[in-house]
């Protein structure tokens, strides 16, 4: 298929089929990154007249997704994940418009920088519980990290901790399939929308999507109604995000299902990504033991090496290397390497290319973070690139100098809270433990594969083993006491 003169370059395209069929559903960011060598930074993929524009370069992302974000902040209507699975209500998949503004405004009441400081105590308690759990049974570290991220959010959103593991299991179950379903190339119907004309009997995928939707909305509605019941029992006195939704229901203009989804969306959006960042941190530490040692030295200089006091947020200003390390984890292996695909509302022209209304625009965070011009020797894990003077330190710096939280008007609304969560978890893990890869029968280190990820639009490292050793008996005792 011949390209129009003002169309960005891209792989060989066939009539009708286009070229999007070449895009793999696994590690899609690496495929997009690989196109850059042949076609340049701006690449176009096509299917049935619909275009996807991939931006592999920071300059283009800054111009289109930030400066022109009024036009570049919608989402493509995903038939499987949004229309049938989410009843058109899931925040992360909403098109630009009044419903999105209402839902984002609601999340902002919980996550704006003015209130995020108030959650430090909760985050410190939860991170201490994480360390105690690892201390008691290091083999469960994967689920402990998920519990840490999920429970912190659960407390904030629904105002209580988990009753057993049932709610945690349910949200992980929802997330496992949702991160795959929201991939724009995961379901044929999202590539060939005409398939949506088929009746249910010929479209089993639709029945499946509705079933998943019914399951999750039942879960999220139960959690929301439970908050209402507790509010009524307490004479209206309950402090949590969902209680705020009930109190301001008219002002926010959200119906009950949207309220259930907005609370559920914040819960699920924050759980997996935050956990993935901590898992990448463990991978990075096993591959870079000198970095871990240097961070531990910094922590020991400030807190004393005896293990009597665990680092807290009020030590933040004194730990510049630790802050740089956390930022480097967010850069080195972004948890959501393609952010959420953005969508244009109207025609636009850029660098001599025509970008039609209804184009999907993907900012490839992975490619930007691996750009050697922007981050010299980008593939290496090097916190030094983010080092600043102690006098310049502030928690807001955690979210600057990288694109791990996405772009423009769709940027992650939970970014500061999330960055502070991963910060406290990482600093405390480095304070409490030596983190090493296991050894095989011959004493050879079994290092995790940096390129192995679980399937989905988010990048979580594939299963790996890690050995945690408390740095001293006193460290272990402090954790148990504090917990
Ligand atoms: C380290 C952890 C996190 C990372 C790396 C992360 C990253 C991202 C990214 C890349 C996006 C897509 C932005 C775009 O499309 O341009 C996003 C969206 C979103 N995030 Fe986060 N996130 C994290 C934690 C959280 C937390 C704790 C919350 C809790 C409120 C949250 C809530 C959301 C929501 C609701 C969206 C959808 C926004 C929209 O579509 O308008 N995230 N996040």
TrEMBL record:
Its main location: membrane. Heme binds at residue 412. It comes from the Eukaryota. It is found in: Membrane. One of its GO terms (cellular component) is membrane. Belongs to the cytochrome P450 family. This is Cytochrome P450. Keywords: Heme, Iron, Membrane, Metal-binding, Monooxygenase, Oxidoreductase, Signal, Transmembrane, Transmembrane helix. GO terms for molecular function: heme binding; iron ion binding; monooxygenase activity; oxidoreductase activity, acting on paired donors, with incorporation or reduction of molecular oxygen. CDD domains: CYP64-like. Its cofactor is heme. The lineage of its organism: Eukaryota, Fungi, Dikarya, Basidiomycota, Agaricomycotina.
